[in-house]
Write the structure tokens for this entry.
Amino acid sequence: MTTARPSLDPELRELLADMPLMSQLSPEILAQLRRLPSTPVESLLSDRQVDRREVTVPAKDGAPIPLSVFSPANTDRTSTAAPCVYWMHGGGMVMGDRFSQIDIPLEWLDEFGAVVVSVDYRLAPEATGTALVDDCYQGLLWVAEHSAELGIDPARIVVAGASAGGGLAAGVALLARDLGTPTIAAQMLICPMLDHRNTSTSSRQYSGGPGVWTREMNEFGWRAVLGDLTGQEIPAYVSPALADDLSGLPTTYLDTGSAEVFRDEVTDYATRIWAAGGQAELHVWAGGFHGFDALYPHARISASARRTRTAWLTRLLLPDLAA
């Protein structure tokens, strides 16, 4: 039986018609995708006044975790501490690097002078379990500990990510809450990958056919990251929807499309934050598919989604500027 689906935004439907789509991932397809060129970050920086720094931070097991730090150039960091966006990239936990979707947080560097730090966490299936979220957390600890050196206001650090990166940002926020450090001002969860169970209505709606990210592709990603973990062994830091308690989290922004596999797990996460007494702002973009604004940033719905996120961050981090 065919499951009815929300219709795509007309402009996105037209754009998507020219894009090759898949229904499933396999080890062979993943290997091919990983051979594709990385995001050409130099072209994104060429028209910006940005200082770039590359650092390496040790993981819990000593493995090197690369971080890229992008700071507004010609800024006196000794007198004015900037907000920081700590970025976790998407890619289903199995692909991508610290430059994937980096155009999204670089817009916040442009808009209000945020320092952007992007982490190159290890990927599944080579890394499994908590390794990915632990890598992200160790990088965040380094940023907080070096905030003065980086010209960052430690009270205005935001964790942010898209898709897999959004799920990792949620896991990092849970870790920071439970361990009591570092302070996180907010979490920005863009179409986040939050729930390994893959049983929601939206998950079933986007099964059995080609798409940007299907239920079958989602299952592949989660199998890769979970490894041998099953049932009660799976930590909420890896699959944040499992967390029993969502109280005490930083203020949260979540968005998703109405026409995507993660819609229901994202809306449920927002509802549970509210139920726990927390603050969350949720946007469900009608007709948006998974990652629509990253793939087609100039589409009208994409521009609206990006402006709305930027406005929220500006209100939060620079209330005088927003006014």
